[in-house]
Amino acid sequence: MAEFIMIIVSAVFINNFVVVQFLGICPFLGVSKDFKSALGMGLAVTFVMTITCLITYPLYTFVLVPLGIEFMEIIIFIFVIAAIVQMIEMALKKFSPTLYNAMGIYLPLITTNCAVLGVAELVIDTPQIAGLIGITTGAMNMGFAVLYGLFAGLGFTVAIVLMSGLREKIARLPINKHLKGFPIAMICACFIAMAFYVFALI
Amino acid sequence: MLNLLLREINVTTLGWVLGIVAVIAVVFAVLIVLVSKLCFVPVDEKAEAIQANLAGANCGGCGYAGCADFAKALAQGKAKINGCGPTPNENKSKIAEILGVPFSAEESKYAVVHCAGGEVSLDKYVYVGNEGCTAQNALLGGRKVCPQGCMGGGTCEACCPYHAVTVEHGVAYANKALCEACGLCVSKCPKGIIELIPKSSKVYVACSTTCKGKDVMNTCKVGCIGCGLCAKNCPNGAIEMVDNIPVINYSKCTGCKVCVAKCPRKCIKEI
């Protein structure tokens, strides 16, 4: 139970993927102009992150490590992520056209999202992830990996939704024209990042 | 050099690497093929061809969820080609060809706001609350004394995908150069004072009040008092008074601008 809470707090707040670890900045700035698409993007990323962890963690632990070819991790993870996104897209198109239309272009975009590769890399780095979620190194297992993937994705969603809310408000304010659009978005991102940094001090 | 490099390579490891990559590649290839066979969705080629000709702005002005949805509706005969504002006429005729229906070109339009009040028309009360016109309109019909006055809440500004509408001095104004006539603002305005008019028009009526002339005199500096001078003086009979407000028939209007000169309230404006 303690680990469970620690995973949530660590993945969503203390080590938030976007504003603390600076992964997945591209969709964070690109798809945060309005609330709806930000939420869609966030949920799509959460979905892909969870499934990626579900596949890459056993693949690394039970195939790559015993064979002594851990150095192939990045190539194989990219492989896996691209294939998963492809399959999810096709499955969604068939079984849930509504969700497919809602996710739209965001799903293929995730193929090249570094946050997804980042979570796959992080959950296999046993000493680091064990430190993050407060367990002993040997206690790391697949359940923790998948949970971390899920909540890291939710952390991404929280950050991008916060950002979209701020940007929607800011779009209406009388802002100096040199700051309008992207510059003010960067400043907002900075403030969000500073706010999240406080969690690390707790 | 090459010999040195070759000696460094561990053949067993290389074998495992190639083997694993090959196995994973084959597994995923088979899976993807299986999934694609399993999840095959017939593609509507007609709709795809139509979508290629649409403007692709995804503004939603047609009332559908986006260009893809509109193309599907067109292909199924549920929508009209002229429902889309931003698509240029030559593309529309191409779409008509794909659909096999006759197409009559309609002149491209743009939005005008039939109000010029804003700061020069009186307020009933000071509005503090949810931004956007719909909320304000629900409270005694908005802060303006004039029941058709633009409240300047910016709902049209917020919904415009082309950033053509801006609220200046408390009244909305549509930029002719930027407007693509998607019609979103027309449907969003709770007062219904935005209208699409042909781009070639030379004049428009910047008021839509239903108040009596005396009330307008007291409450708004630029409101129409319904004197009918424009209708009487129009050499082409293009202006008709409907509910105390001039309505311009753009098919008859030649752009002589007599009405602009005659209007005592300066609420017929040149474009």
Fold topology:
The complex is a heterodimer of chains A (202) and B (271).
Chain A lengths: L1 H13 L10 H6 L4 H33 L5 H23 L1 H7 L2 H5 L3 H11 L1 H8 L8 H29 L11 H20 L1
Helix pairs in contact in A: 1-9, 3-4, 3-7, 3-9, 4-5, 4-7, 7-9, 9-10
Chain B lengths: L1 H7 L2 H28 L6 H9 L13 H9 L13 H11 L9 E5 L19 H6 L16 H5 L5 E4 L2 E4 L9 H5 L5 E5 L4 E3 L7 H7 L9 H5 L5 E4 L2 E4 L9 H5 L5 E3 L1
Antiparallel strand pairs in B: 1-4, 2-3, 5-8, 6-7
Short description, anyone?
Chain A is an all-alpha fold and 202 residues long. Chain A has 10 helices and no strands.
Please tell me about this protein's structure.
- The complex is a heterodimer of chains A (202) and B (271).
- With 202 residues, chain A is mainly alpha-helical.
- Chain A has one domain.
- Chain A has ten helices and no strands.
- Chain A has helices spanning 2-14, 25-30, 35-67, 73-95, 97-103, 106-110, 114-124, 126-133, 142-170, 182-201.
- In chain A, helix 7 (114-124) runs antiparallel to helix 9.
- The longest helix of chain A has 33 residues, at 35-67.
- The two termini of chain A are 20 Å apart.
- Chain B has helices at 2-8, 11-38, 45-53, 67-75, 89-99, 133-138, 155-159, 184-188, 213-219, 229-233, 258-262, and strands at residues 109-113, 165-168, 171-174, 194-198, 203-205, 239-242, 245-248, 268-270.
- Chain B folds into two domains: 45-99, 3-methyladenine DNA Glycosylase II, Chain A, domain 3, CATH 1.10.15; 109-270, Alpha-Beta Plaits.
- Chain B is elongated and about 100 Å long.
- In chain B, the strands form four sheets. In chain B, strands 1-4 form a two-stranded antiparallel sheet.
- In chain B, helix 3 packs across helix 4.
- With 271 residues, chain B is α+β, with helices and mostly antiparallel strands.
- Chain B has eleven helices and eight strands.
- Chain B starts with a helix and ends with a strand.
- The chains are: A mainly alpha (202), B alpha+beta (271).
- The A-B interface holds A 63-64, 67-69, 72, 75-76, 79-80, 83, 86-87, 90-91, 93-95, 101, 172 and B 13, 16-17, 20-21, 24-25, 28, 31-32, 35-36, 38-41, 65, 68-69, 131, 154, 158.
